[in-house]
Write a structure and sequence with these properties.
The protein is an alpha+beta fold. It is built from 6 helices and 9 strands; from the N terminus they run αβααβββαβαββββα. Helix 1 runs antiparallel to helix 4.
Length: 224
């Protein structure tokens, strides 16, 4: 499995060479001085995407204050000295039917500046996150996202691993990645991300005031 993943990473890196041929991108750990900039970038990437405005930048802010934060998995993509992308993965749990707790990772938010999307920056961040998560010894990574995008880096419907949401549901955007062969074979049950993902909407206006004004709009990409 590790060899297959390596070939997959090589394939994606080869595809990205053409997309990134006019850019030199460095992936590194996020420094504390980068926190506001990455929150701003996340806001830019998600604004009006799923609903008017967004909450993902506040989720990122809260994740960093939580015990779930893994500093080695808080990563930025830098080009010409400018942060152009960001990803974070945080500690999460799968609780099996016998109430045994298994540690896994929850991926996201993953953000790239809107004007630089579809150039391979997000894939580079994802590949680096997977490599680092393996070194840290985690068995798997879980996320909610676009299957067409994340299947490219090896994620599969979580149902294939016997993993459901905390409410016992399964759907295509709920995906899992096994970091080593059979690493999730005995990890089955309900997935629980950190409570930091639950945004207090009463606190959102105050947090939003820290950023430049942006108009909230209804768009075609938003959920009904």
């Amino acid at each position: 499995m590790a060899q297959a993943k390596s070939k997959l990473a090589q394939k994606i890196e080869y595809e990205n060479r053409n997309k990134l041929k006019h850019m030199e991108v460095l992936i590194r750990e996020t420094a504390e001085k980068d926190f506001y900039q990455t929150e701003y970038l996340t806001r830019e990437a998600f604004w009006n995407l799923y609903h008017p405005g967004c909450v993902e930048h506040m989720i990122l802010h809260n994740l960093r204050k939580s015990k779930c934060c893994v500093r080695e998995l808080d990563l930025v993509a830098v080009s010409d000295g400018k942060i152009v992308g960001h990803i974070i993965s945080t500690r999460a749990r799968i609780i099996d039917p016998a109430d045994v707790v298994h540690d896994v990772l929850c991926v996201g938010p993953l953000s790239v500046l809107p004007e630089l999307q579809k150039k391979g920056i997000g894939s580079e961040l994802m590949i680096k996150s997977i490599e680092t998560a393996k070194k840290l010894g985690y068995p798997g990574m879980i996320l909610f996202g676009n299957p067409a995008y994340y299947h490219r880096v090896g994620f599969r419907n979580a149902q294939e691993f016997g993993i459901t949401t905390k409410d016992g549901q399964n759907f295509d955007p709920f995906m899992a990645l096994e970091l080593n062969a059979n690493a999730l074979a005995d990890v089955k049950g309900r997935f629980f991300e950190d409570e930091a993902f639950e945004v207090d909407t009463d606190q959102l206006p105050g947090f939003e005031s820290l950023f430049p004004y942006k108009e909230k709009r209804v768009t075609e990409t938003q959920f009904n």
